[in-house]
Amino acid sequence: MISKKLERVLQRVQKPARYVGGEVNAVVKKKEEVDVRFAFCFPDVYEIGMSHLGMKILYGLFNAQPYVWCERVFAPWIDMEQEMRQEGIPLFALESGDPVRKFDFIGFTLQYELSFTNVLNMLDLAGIPLRSEERTELSPLVVAGGPCVCNAEPLADFIDLMFLGEGEEVDLEVIELYRKFRQAGKGKQEFLRAAAQIPGVYVPSLYDVSYHEDGTVAAITAKDGAPATVRKRVMLSMDESYFPKDFVVPFLDVVHDRAVAEVFRGCIRGCRFCQAGFIYRPVREKSVETVSCQCRDLCQNTGYDEVSLSSLSTSDYSQLNPLLDELLTWTPGEKVSISLPSLRVDGFSNELTKKIKTVRRSGLTFAPEAGTQRLRDVINKNVTEEELLKTVHTAFSGGWNKVKLYFMIGLPTETFDDVAGIAELGQKVVDAYYDTPDRPKGRAVSVTLSASSFVPKPFTPFQWEPQDTVETLRKKQRHLVDSIHTRKIEANWHDAETSFLEAVFARGDRRLCRVLEEAQRRGFRFDGWADCFSFEAWMKLFSDLELDPAFYANRRRDFSEILPWDHLDYGIRKSFLVEECKKAYQDMASPNCREKCSACGAACFGGGICFENR
Amino acid sequence: MKTVRIWFCKEGAARYISHLDLTRCFSRALHRAKIPLWYTEGFSPRAYMVFALPLSLGIRGERESLDIRLEQEISPEEIISRLNAVLPPDLPVYAVTEPVMKPGKIAFASFEFELETEDLSAQEALGRVEDLFSKQEILVEKHTKSGPKTINIAPFLTHTKVWEENGRLRLSSVLPAGSTENVNPYLITTSIRNYMGFDFYEKVARTNLYDAQMHPFV
């Protein structure tokens, strides 16, 4: 429903379709017929949020419950926010147009740290007190899930309850408990204490955190019967786990506008910088039949003519070729093409690319992550230069002439020679092109080297590492450019200042809550967007509040230090992360989960690859 | 191969879909409804789809149309029911016909406006709008590809009526439309705002399309 007030505003903003709903497969229920209303908030613009698979799964799952109505909410872009504030339009949900503050649950998915300010800004736009303690009624409950809840301590004062791990079961358990408590007329505190007993539920207010003089954590103490540590939830049988038969099909051209099938969760690799590689363990695959059936349902119910096989590293799917063969039995007849989001250097073959379409469109992309073999061993990116060059040879003789390579700058133990190694590797790829006799005739090669800045993340072997300072990162970026000697290679990089802020919040503690609160008051939001982010304003904020951001980003932690997320358990032993970190210092790689078990601890969940025969 | 014209409304949330997004929405719906479309030959086959005339964002369309080419015979009723099963609720298809005129023949479009005034009565507003429309020159800024341009819309208002009904100000207008000359109906409401200095909530609908001889587009 579009109110008159909203209608007038829509005339004045860009892309009004972001704010009206009404898409194919959007779920509209009758208010009177549901018991629980859930506002699923993605703290970024519509086009980003509508590309996110997790939201699609939970939206479908919640709405499959007759007593729940789950609606979508996105962060209004700055032009819309200004109009909403001016006209007194509170944050509303797309399906009903109703104000979010009237909902039972306001749930945020925390996908990246730079969206934290958007979370607070959306609460403010909704007209809801930011701090959990100021919301005394049972509803609305502000809840959160997604990868960043593995350390969302900078949001601990604002979120009532967080879901650790995969939400398919635990979210519904909490909704069910809420229903019971509301019916019994019980209060919020009572509810939160009871919810904390559900595995996978973390109630930040039931944990007291004390600090040493130097700012490090002294102790994290559970109270009111909350468990000392909260373990994440996982779905063990992926074939039986809920997956939607349709997606909401946006009118707007969103970032990922296609059907998406998830082929497995987790990753066998264990690259030491990669948080996803650890927090989603263990690897659990879907069967070929399940994936093919889910692809078919989705294409039939959405009208999409492209399906993407998604996972952290799809070429590691043990049944990839059988799956493609199965899909190819029906996709050509339905005029559907198959795409893979990313390929590992060692997962590329012409046999594979003949079966898929989209790689050809955009050129090839690989992520060696580091320029020298030594540094690739440090980060456990088990890819050799030989493999990369073999792969690009194959690609060049297959008709490609554009290659994009992703790297990180600022990795632990990195030297300027390692940075120069990125350019040298780029040069070798250029040389490989001219060494390929059957390369595309009459076309020049184009190699793009894309360098992001390393951000140390919780639950990785590098969680104790300092991030390079912004100055050092800039020097390394310049060194990369100076090391390139041909116009066939183009280099680009991420802004070091946003990576610094990301590093601050990724390993932040609860003392950052008042920083975020003040940031919202000063109007900060969309920090991931260059047009909104101001480094100077952030630095002024930190200095006004007398908190040193470098303490979080650039400080080396001792292995014995209590980390702000030590009470959260993702199944990975801390001692395993320490071992991996020490191996990194010795330039030693580790085998992947399929080669040999490294006993990370994820076997505690009782399923997945940990129990497969190797 | 047979060309058919699909007639639909564009209302509610769908009023805010741009022309490009509308094209994509219909192409998905046609695919999903398994309408036997004729595809262009050549390196990248494309379904033939021609919309009669794009509609500005926010305006309701009561007689919108789209031409497609079919590879196999399929009844109009079948097309209607299959498409309505897969299109969003705010884009209902209500007829499928054989095209008589070419979209290029379109020269005029008719619009209905409903204005809900805020600070003054509809009767007062009516007087002021009548005054405005009697002027020889009504200048209003128009956004064009080459930047803003000031145009005089007074000559285009010969087929515009204004009256009061149930406390609302009502306008009906026939304006040049199509590829040669096009006058956006929002220019009228903008000129009322600019010249008369009162604000209102407006609803605008495009009710029909015509050729140069004012025969309805069929």
SSE layout:
The complex is a heterodimer of chains A (614) and B (218).
Chain A: H1 4-10, E1 36-42, H2 46-49, H3 53-63, E2 68-74, H4 78-87, E3 105-109, H5 116-126, E4 141-145, E5 161-163, H6 167-183, H7 188-195, E6 201-202, E7 207-211, E8 217-222, E9 230-231, E10 259-262, E11 264-265, H8 276-279, E12 284-285, H9 288-302, E13 306-310, H10 320-327, E14 337-339, H11 350-355, H12 358-362, E15 364-369, H13 373-378, H14 385-397, E16 402-409, H15 416-434, E17 446-453, H16 470-482, E18 489-493, H17 496-506, H18 513-521, H19 535-544, H20 550-553, E19 568-569, H21 574-585
Parallel strand pairs in A: 1-2, 1-3, 3-4, 4-5, 9-19, 10-13, 13-14, 15-16, 16-17, 17-18
Antiparallel strand pairs in A: 5-6, 7-8, 11-12
Chain B: E1 2-10, H1 19-32, E2 49-51, E3 60-70, H2 76-86, E4 93-97, E5 106-117, H3 122-133, E6 139-144, E7 147-152, E8 160-165, E9 168-176, H4 186-196, E10 200-211
- DSSP helical segment count of chain A: 21
State the CATH class of one domain in chain A. Answer: Alpha Beta
What is the CATH C level class of the largest domain in chain B, in words? Alpha Beta
Helix content of chain A: 25-40%
Intertermini distance of chain A: 55 Å
> What form of chain B results from the Cα inertia axes?
elongated
CATH architecture of the largest domain in chain B: 2-Layer Sandwich
Mean pLDDT of chain B: 91
Secondary structure tally, helices of chain B: 4
Number of strands of chain A: 19
DSSP helix fraction of chain B: 10-25%
Using the coordinates shown, work out and report the CATH topology of the largest domain in chain B: Alpha-Beta Plaits
Taking Cα atoms only, what radius of gyration of chain B do you get, to the nearest Å?
20 Å
What sequence of helices (H) and strands (E) makes up the elements of chain B? EHEEHEEHEEEEHE
Query: How many discrete structural domains of chain B?
Result: 2
Mean pLDDT across all residues of chain A, rounded? 94
